[in-house]
Specification:
The protein is built from 14 helices and no strands. It is mainly α and 350 residues long.
């Protein structure tokens, strides 16, 4: 049993590295779609993603959620809002990469956990622990330092972080699996995206058929680039603890930053390094607090189980294992705070 669990965790880690690795390396992909502009690329991503996800759902026969969803108008409305939010995130990200702003885009995903916490306070009236307040404060100082370095607000980073943070909060309310959620969102976006592509073609501005079969294939592959890491993420999520996945999420912006500096040769003056260093300090504080809180919750849950066993006169038994994780599954353990390394309901919008 232990060997099986260890194998599951190892495969889960590989799936997790694969998902976050692809999201981190995707800045290498978007320039391959030129001369298509960001809006055309975005529209192709929406159209082809629906096709890929529909095939995946057909292979797994996961259709039951559709009937339940359409009977709940509030969830449908939230899905439309989620689709609009992720459209902003995807569009700005594609434009940023192809316009030479990979470093600034990576900052958006570094500060996303801090923005998620801030949104939780403002919108959900959540109460923060002192360490979380400290992390948010350091993050705001980082944005100030980077703004001074740029001579302007890092608006790309802020739009990416706030749009993705808002998207994550909406998805919490919708409560759909990754593939199902992407299928629903791209269904909402399909007709507008297809209409835009048809208009581009009719006006002679489309690059899809004007630059050969290779270019058309690259544009169509946007569906795979969107869906494959999502499938890998889903496979990882059921095999490794959420805290592990939360730590893996930082692989994406680290790779993006490395590409921006080493491959795309974007400038990194000292003040920009100083701003990024402050962001990393904030994330270390946030991660340490989340790990400590999770450990305290596990200890408290174990004590509660032991006390319950003593009250019933039964000897304490080993707690059940979470599916595929090999860790105890305390029934009363609180969920990870929004924006902490354990809060991984949403995935990078890259």
């Amino acid at each position: 049993m232990k060997t099986t669990t260890d194998n599951e965790q190892r495969s889960g880690l590989l799936f997790g590295f694969g998902a976050y690795g692809i999201w981190g390396l995707v800045p290498l992909y978007w320039p391959l779609l030129e001369p298509a502009g960001a809006m055309e690329v975005l529209a192709h991503r929406m159209v082809w993603s629906l096709g890929v996800v529909a095939i995946a759902l057909a292979c797994t026969r996961r259709w039951a959620w559709i009937g339940e969803l359409v009977r709940q108008p509030r969830r449908v409305a939230l899905l439309v809002l989620a689709a609009a939010t992720i459209t902003v995130n995807w569009g700005v990200y594609i434009w940023a990469v192809n316009s030479g702003h990979v470093v600034e885009a990576s900052l958006g995903y570094f500060i996303n956990p801090l923005v998620t916490i801030l949104l939780g306070v403002v919108l959900l009236k959540e109460r923060l622990r002192p360490a979380q307040w400290a992390a948010v404060g350091v993050g705001l100082a980082a944005v100030l330092v980077i703004s001074i370095g740029y001579g302007r607000l890092p608006w790309i980073s802020l739009v990416l972080a706030f749009s993705f943070g808002t998207y994550g909060l909406i998805k919490k309310k919708i409560n759909l699996g990754g593939l199902e959620s992407l299928a629903a969102e791209t269904t909402v976006l399909f007709l507008p995206a297809l209409g835009f592509l048809l208009w581009l073609g009719a006006s002679g501005r489309s690059t899809f058929t004007a630059h050969g079969a290779g270019h058309a294939a690259w544009l169509a592959s946007a569906g795979l680039v969107t869906a494959v890491p999502l499938v890998l993420f889903g496979a990882a999520a059921v095999r490794v603890p959420l805290t592990t996945l939360g730590l893996l999420q930082y692989l994406t912006p680290v790779l993006q930053l490395a590409l921006g500096v080493a491959y795309f040769h974007e400038p990194m003056p000292p003040e920009r390094w100083a701003g990024f260093a402050l962001v990393w300090v904030a994330l270390i504080v946030l991660t340490g607090d989340a790990l400590r809180t999770a450990r305290t919750a596990r200890v408290r849950a174990a004590r509660l189980r032991a006390a319950a066993a003593l009250r019933t006169g039964d000897a304490p038994s080993s707690p059940p294992l979470s599916p595929g994780t090999g860790e105890s599954a305390p029934p009363a353990a609180p969920e990870a705070p929004a924006g902490s390394p354990g809060a991984t309901d949403s995935v990078p919008g890259a």
